[in-house]
Model the fold of this input.
Amino acid sequence: MNIQAAKKHQVGLIFGKFYPLHCGHIYLIEKAVSQVDELHVILGCEHDRDLKLFEESHMPKQPHVQDRFNWLQDTFQGRHNIHIHILDEAGISYYPNGWKDWSDRVKSILQKQQVTPTVIFTSEPQDVQNHQQYFGCDVKLIDANREFINISATKIRQAPYQNWPFIAKAARPFFVKKIAIVGGDIDKLPIQLANIYNTQYVSNGYINYIYHRRADNKQLALSETDFIRIAMLHAQRIDEALITANQVLFTSPDFSTLHRYYQSAFKRKNATLTELENRYPFDLVIDQAEFKQKESNVAIFETALKKVDAQLY
Done:
């Protein structure tokens, strides 16, 4: 008799808000999936509760449910036995109340997917009894005392940059502060700051574009098409740099500044540049032209450093 074939198909469940996804969540999921044949991760969301969590946090912007879903998808990409589902908890009493309504809604999702759980994994000892009561299956605790990874989403929400190493790699680009240096010698200061913060500097798309045009011996006057190409190249480089940026990313210019250059040249706005302004909001723009003419380089450097540091606390 094939004992392995006769063994019951093990189906695991994990619940969480993943607000944001962190190493503790990943450890929970990885240890759980090593014990079952398939694992279903239930991502809970509720508009008012999620907004309240954000308003009480120190996160720079609110992650929405699609962001959190994408973080999970990206982290476990290609893992065909890990399945992620979104659970809308609207209308259900807030935890620790509402267990009956909440579990019924979870069961509705599982039934549609023809999933029958055999075990639930959790790091919360206070939930074990209710899981057993409402789902009628085994419950296994994983790292309940946070001995392996001592972190929580609450800690990260309160101090995301102090807890940066714990934020999931897939979630980090969402939290990276984008800082633009405009005016003056636009390459010098951002390179210095990027070196200090051990992060990425996105070189100026305008300079690179002009360089390539000059190499082709073409006329250097910028057309409207040139501006759009510069902007799109800049956006592409920012997207690439965000993946590996360490808390902050430096560049020049921001898209609002580039759009102002465009409007000055062509006396009208551009829909593509407006879209890029909205899609890539910058957390800080340092205009070196605002510094006093007689201010020393070291004074400018120290002022800029304080402005950047304030973004991370």
About this structure: The radius of gyration is 25 Å.
